[in-house]
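Reply to thread "Modeling small-molecule complexes from scratch"

Following up on the discussion above, here's a worked example others can learn from. I took a protein sequence and the SMILES for zinc ion and predicted the complex. Inputs first:
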Amino acid sequence: MQQKKAYRYRFYPTEEQQQMLARMFGCCRYVYNWALRQRTDAYYQHGQHLYYEGTAQRLTVLKKHDDHQWLNEVSSVPLQQALRHLDKAFRNFYEGRAGYPKFHKKHGEQAATYAASAFTWDGTLLTLAKMNAPLDIHWSRPLPHGCKPTTVTVSKDTAHRYFVSILLEEDIKPLPVVNKQVGLDLGLKSMVITSDGQTYGNPKYFARDEKKLAQAQRRLAKKQKGSKNRAKARRKVARIHTRIADRRRDYQHKLSTRIIHENQVVCVESLAVKNMVKNHSLAKAISDVGWGEFVRQLEYKAAWYGRMLVKIDKFYPSSKRCFDCGHILDPLDLSIRTWTCPGCGTVHDRDINAARNVLAAGQAVTACGESIRPGAVKTKPGSPRRTRKSHS
Ligand SMILES: [Zn+2]
């Protein structure tokens, strides 16, 4: 089965390439923000829906205006891709996976996506449209031999590092079937607790970085506006931010790969993280562990390797229900880590009991006529099952 897989590398642009990329990023950001305004105004002022095609037609007109000639100085492909990114952001919003699309900021991460017509790949060198030299890529792992990249995304993070993400259609072989099923629960003391009692990832691991971040932020606040020292302090804050993000991503990838390799069926709760973050005492811990991103990784890796991910409805009372007798407790305060079931007297570790319930709920779904197939299964009746192709 052909799957999409992205390979991400750091690269080091020349002075000239940096300037070209800066212009490209600026144009992409401009087009994205312009189209977001167009779509928002179309709806709120005229009650009309404007989709990708509509924005693409308007962009063609916009580029003919005298005061927008600068948009013609860069490759047109990434500008169209910016419209597609916006369209995807709207689709995620319509389908309840994300909030309303936001404007891209000048000081945030910058990116531009090149479709196949806007770059050349000769097997060793990657050259972007309008550039006359290939990118100086640090190949931290090899690309599969003879691959044909379909899309290339270049980005610059807030610590001013450049990355290129190369998307391939790859034939990924399913892993041999294993006879193991597992339920996962999101913990606070540990990132993941499994139904067989294993714990992974201590959020405190990231807390050390956060202390450093808070310190750097305090130093930044004291620096005079516009001073050289302030610029230096801001770069330091950005570097710590990106290091935290890098470490978290690495950790999540290693853990999701391991869990998918070891289990045939993985059951998780499709937590509404957005709702949980509203509870401020929990907010930091939840955003720390990044459950949503972790579940997304499990989902596409399950699809790659022929495993099944079962998502349990978020209203399932996994932590309040006694796994042994089914007794349901009154609301359980988060500070309570172990409890004794009034129904049967079993003493439960809160998180392990929850993980076992998640597994049982997942097994009930797969036993009730849902066919076992690679990818994700949702438990909500009537909702279409979806296998999401994904990147990275
Ligand atoms: Zn019980």
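What I'd highlight from this example: The chain has a mean pLDDT of 85. The CA atoms of residues 277 and 283 lie 4 Å apart. Questions welcome below.
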